[in-house]
Specification:
The protein contains 8 helices and 2 strands; from the N terminus they run αββααααααα. With 182 residues, it is mainly alpha-helical. It is globular, with a radius of gyration of 17 Å.
């Protein structure tokens, strides 16, 4: 039931904010996507999660933070759905400025750093932050220009994305444990 105290306690064990994802590592529990990325950069500095250049690093942090805290209209009007395609989907007016801003970010990054990823030839936190948006743009048939189309193809070709989407497609359409209101 939506008011099931046991279910709520179980979610609280995963993350105090009752949000996912949540990373538990070496005594740390981190539950905000951007905080997880920053934590991983701290514990795995050689992984290259942020660009080497100071200016590019600041830019990467900024666009990642914007994704982490912004685009509420896009999130609400174009929910994640890895199992469906909606060709010609009508975009709710409030979502269009979010789409336009994301396209602006991608276009600027790809032009500045040369692609194929947002900050050049290596994947960064920014690519991880925008990967779910790539799936939304494909699900809802968002029209993009050539550089952004190529970027979506690059992200969708990543082995991690292929694995994630394949696993999601195997999930039941309704997950009873997640059907709760708080």
């Amino acid at each position: 039931s939506p008011d099931d105290a046991d279910a709520r306690r179980e979610l609280l064990l995963l993350a105090p904010s009752i949000r996912v994802p949540c990373l538990t590592h070496d005594g740390a529990r981190v539950w905000n996507t951007l905080a997880i990325a920053q934590y991983l950069d701290e514990v795995c500095p050689l992984a290259g999660l942020l660009p080497d250049d100071r200016i590019a690093r600041a830019h990467c942090r900024s666009v990642s933070g914007e994704m982490n805290s912004g685009f509420a209209n896009l999130r609400s009007s174009l929910p994640m759905n890895l199992k469906a395609r909606f060709p010609g989907h009508k975009i709710w007016g409030g979502a269009q400025p979010d789409i336009d801003r994301i396209v602006e970010i991608w276009s600027e990054c790809l032009a500045t750093y040369g692609g194929p990823y947002l900050f050049g030839t290596r994947r960064t936190v920014a690519d991880a932050m925008y990967a779910p948006v790539v799936t939304r743009f494909l699900t809802y048939d968002i029209k993009l220009d050539r550089p952004c189309i190529e970027y979506t193809r690059t992200i969708m070709a990543m082995p991690e994305m292929i694995e994630w989407i394949a696993a999601a497609r195997l999930e039941p359409d309704d997950i009873e444990e997640l059907d709760m209101d708080f």
